Amino acid sequence: MASPQCCANPPTLNPAGGEGKVVDSFGGIKAYVSGAAESKAAVVLVSDVYGFEAPNLRKIADKVASSGYFVVVPDFLHGDPFVPENTERPIQVWIKEHGADKGFEEAKPVIAALKEKGVSSVGAAGYCWGAKVVVELAKAHEIQAAVMCHPSFVTVDDIKEVKCPIAILGAEIDRMSPPEVVKQFEQVLSSKSGIGHFVKIFPGVEHGWTVRYKNEDAAAVKSAEEALADMIDCCSACAQQHHNGQTSASERRHRCSIASSHCWENPPALDPAGGGGDDVNDFGGQKAYVAGSAGSKAAIVLVSDAFAPNLRKIANRVALSGYFVVVPDFLHGDPYQPDNPNNPGMWLQSHNPKEASEVAKPVIAALKEKGASFIGAAGYCWGAMSQIQSSSMVDCTLLAMLCGKVIDKQQMPRHLVPEATRTRLSYPFPELILTSRLEGCRRMQNPFVSA
């Protein structure tokens, strides 16, 4: 049964809106299209019950197109969107005439038309009613990536059958897919070994917020823009994976989640001359910042995020505790640039954390050659080399590299995991996180230290 939330805040439809154009037939259906027609990556947007003329939906299409995609917004409602004022045709009656199963069948020729024009990667994003269409496409493996925004009519059984990477963006205030249901979706996806996923619940927003916000509501606009950024980043990650060939499920989950907008917030002013240590041109084959006593038998490798904020300060503090600290330049002088027109996913294509883990091995070997008997490593966001599940996850993860084997926090005995990681503390506690990390390293040096 459809909830009143499905119909709240109806938009004022505009058939002439948007920077793109309306075509009479794309895969046999009228559609709004935007972006470079020659692009090899496409995104199909599936509307809510108000159809493809909704102004905010066309804004989304244009913004997605500006990231390099060819975007198609089919009119699966055939000029018959839901009209709240028509009391003789309530949503319960209207929905029977516009089943998502029809949208699913009509989407297949649209995707076929995209492939015929040379598109190699097709993603689809659905809003409310449209999310059900998208999950059906994901179940049939018709697309390479799926995004569902405040989904309606989607069930746990649907999620069990998904066959492509998927992002689910839910609302805290949602009677159609309340947070507890979205969390069930996440649990199912986490149990599927071959499917990458990204699940996020937006606080303080209601069902439909991504497309039916009011432009004068700054908070609503910000949340909608954040959801759009998450959608684009996940599509980008999946498109790159499809272009580059098959990857493991863990890497698909990692790429999608690490592309979240949280990874790029608060960029620092970088200072190549900062810190009290030294810059060396070659440490294990990498340019690096080093600090502390070179004669120390205990070493720490710090692996930056996409920017490396305050990392040299952290290195100096760790060095004061008796460690020799190495901060390799695994980004090779190319940190993420927030003002770069290329989106984060494009940057990630050139800076795969998995590749960084490989080039870290000679750094570890160089430390052993110079006599280090204990080597720990701390990574931040990108540098953690493991997926970021949600914005509530702690900012940094402690990794131990012992005898050439990387041990993550799930594999560590509890007493070896820093307290900051156990309690999921985040940004407001840098001193405690640093202190706990050092204590964690000390415990790894001596596992018999009591917790």
From TrEMBL:
Signal peptide: none annotated. It comes from the Eukaryota. SUPFAM superfamilies: alpha/beta-Hydrolases. GO terms for molecular function: hydrolase activity. Gene3D superfamilies: alpha/beta hydrolase. InterPro entries: AB_hydrolase_fold, Dienelactn_hydro. This is Dienelactone hydrolase domain-containing protein. It comes from Oryza meyeriana var. granulata.
